[in-house]
Amino acid sequence: MLLEGRVWRFGDNVDTDQIIPARYLNTTDPAELAAHCMEDADPEFPGKVRPGDILVAGRNFGCGSSREQAPLSLKAAGVACVVAASFARIFYRNAINIGLPIVECPEAAGAVAQGDRIAVDLGAGVLRAGEASFRVAPFPEFMQRIIAAGGLVPYTRQKLAKEVQDP
Amino acid sequence: MAMTATQKILARHAGLERVEAGQLIEARLDLVLGNDITAPLAIIEFEKLGATRVFDPERVVLVADHFVPNKDIKSAMQSKRQRDFARAHQLPHYYEGGDGGIEHALLPERGLTRPGMLIIGADSHTCTYGALGAFSTGVGSTDLAVAMATGKAWFKVPAAIRVVYRGKLRPWVGGKDLILHTIGRLGVEGANYRTLELTGEALAQVSVEGRLTMANMGIEAGAKNAFMEPDQATLAWVDARTDVPYEVVRSDHDAPFEATLEIDVGQVEPQVALPHLPENARGVSQVGDVAVDQVVIGSCTNGRLEDLRVAAKILAGKKVHPWVRLIVIPATQAIYRQALEEGLLKVFVDAGGIVSTPTCGPCLGGHMGVLAEGERALATTNRNFVGRMGHPKSEVYLAGPAVAAATAVRGRISSPEEVA
Ligand code: SF4
Fold first, then answer.
1. Nearest CA of chain B to the CA of A132: how many Å?
2. What's residue A143's pLDDT?
3. Ligand 1 centroid, distance to B299 Cα (angstroms)
4. Mean pLDDT, chain B cut into blocks of 10 residues (420 residues total)
5. CATH, residue B406
6. Does A99 touch chain B (CB under 8 A)?
7. pLDDT at A165 over 90
8. DSSP B390
């Protein structure tokens, strides 16, 4: 999968309260969540983000609560991929489970700026920014299967169907 | 080969002899948990799965606690979705209102969490139950959906870090102070993807409630789970709440720990974490002159009976500072009742404090004490991120109940020594 887009830059320790503040957790509607995505970190983000944009952040992106509304709001806002120096554990798991591509790449996180255009080739495990290119760690095979199925729910549905056929 | 307690619990539930750090496994779950924020989303995914039944109604616990009693129409609709699901699937462990409370205080209190269990919850502070010798970890709504349907989840076996506490506790220092100090030493990412095993002879001086507070905040160092080996005090506490049998699991003496942090608790004074990260912890004497508008005593971290007793001891016969709102929230209805019987609630009200029914409320900026722009709170909660308790330009300082009560009296962040 090749993802190419415009960069939004954020710093270290962007927590889930910044990605989607708890005051908006009284809904599960993705469009409503997207309208407030990242607004406490950058009030202009929800109005200006365009489908295909790529979010690039520093260390420990997505720390804090387990709210899946965080990756969901990013996905619904049109964010194609999140690149970070590192991710907090639950956010990483949730992103995989809902099929939001995320890439750990400390070198790229240090090298790209707001507004840059970058390309992430998930299959080849490469991130390109202008002249520079960086290697990104491929997902373990098990996670690739979840992503290929489109998330944990379709993956499990396929698995359950198979168990019914040949128990 | 030697294993940590966490590895042993994961191995048993995966039907394997042994597991190693980094290994991906699928494991059987003893208990799964959701709440009024995470379960509604999980229920949508559960339906997408085509599932018609939960794997075991006894093992699915749903708690309405974040926005309850419902703060607005939208949260009422969310809560209702969870309530309808609990009714439709006849879940015996659905809690709301008069028999409820905040999930991570409620489940241990009801004897639902026991040593050796494997528990996941769609809430990051599910790591709390590690204080009782269980493996428990926070996940998202999709994981919860699949877990409710299949009773299983995938895990990457974590590597482990050990924290060893030695020495003698200073006055007014409790579990909250030890864990804030520990997070200050490790950093908010210091235990990311790892097990945090909390051990050492000094923990015998910390009550089981204080240990639940410590494990609760493991996630604030990024940990996947926090684990504490049960001792006699833990087992007595558990046995007083359940007669369901359980198995105590311990780390081998030569278990693989990636790193060990030693802490002399005698060096730790009551702690305060400054905005906007829990790792900004320091001794209360090092905070300087900081006036506050609000003090909150409550949450799954410090809303237990012991916390209320400590706060009441300081507040008895005193008045809350005229420019401070003190909000006290017992974490569960049982704690509320006991605090009522002991006269603690009267102490708070007589001092000029506000006492709320159990709810997460202000902890996540939901209701019952949301901060305005420029306002500052000191809270016994667990997170002080930007906007956590309200306006993105408000501030939260974290501390234990003793510092919180002292601060409520003086109107500025204070050591309990200054008022007691
Ligand atoms: S009290 Fe706060 S941290 Fe605990 S479950 Fe509720 S919102 Fe989460």
1. 28
2. 81
3. 6
4. 96 97 95 98 96 97 97 96 98 94 98 98 98 98 97 96 98 98 97 97 98 98 98 98 98 97 98 98 98 98 98 98 98 98 98 98 97 98 96 97 98 94
5. 3.30.499.10
6. no
7. no
8. B
Q: What is the DSSP string of A73-141?
A: HHHHTT--EEEES-B-HHHHHHHHHHT--EEE-HHHHHH--TT-EEEEETTTTEEEETTEEEE-PPPPH
Three-state DSSP state, B154: strand
Query: Measured between CB atoms, which of A23, A40, A88 is closest to B222?
Result: A88
Q: Within 10 A of B81 (CB to CB), how many other CB atoms are there?
A: 17
Number of domains in chain B: 2
Report how far residue A95's alpha carbon sits from residue A75's, in angstroms, rounded to the nearest whole number.
9
Q: Provide residues with CB under 6 Å of ligand 1.
A: B 65-66, 102-104, 123, 125, 299-300, 360, 363-364, 381-382
Q: Do B164 and B255 touch, CB atoms closer than 8 A?
A: no
User: Which residues, in sequence order, are CB contacts of B291 under 8 Å at separation 6+?
Assistant: B323, B376, B411, B412
Distances from the Cα of A163 to the Cαs of A160, B53, B116, B143, B213, in angstroms?
5, 16, 29, 19, 42
Residue with tokens 């009030």: A43
Same domain for B332 and B409?
A: yes
Residue A167, pLDDT > 60, answer no
Give me ligand 1 centre to Cα B231, in Å: 27
Does pLDDT of A91 surpass 90?
yes
Answer yes or no: are the C-beta atoms of B401 and B302 closer than 8 Å: yes
- Beta strands B271-273 and B281-283: pairing type? antiparallel
- Substitution candidate for ligand 1 out of B95, B360, B385, B398 with most atoms within 8 A of CB: B360
| Of B263, B296, B321, the domain-final residue | B263
Q: How many Å lie between the centroid of ligand 1 and the Cα of residue B383?
A: 9
Is the domain of B283 the same as that of B218? Answer: no
Q: Report the residue among B62, B67, B95, B102 best suited for mutation to probe ligand 1: largest number of ligand atoms under 8 A from its CB.
A: B102
In the 3-class helix/strand/coil scheme, how is B232-281 assigned residue by residue? Answer: HHHHHHHHCCCCCCCCCCCCCCCCCCCEEEEEEHHHCCCEEECCCCCCCE
From CA A25, how far away is CA B388, in angstroms rounded?
Answer: 13
Asked which of B235, B263, B291 is the last residue of a domain, the reply is B263
Range of the domain at B40: 5-263
**DSSP class of residue A29?**
-
For residue B41, the chain A residue with the least C-alpha distance is A28
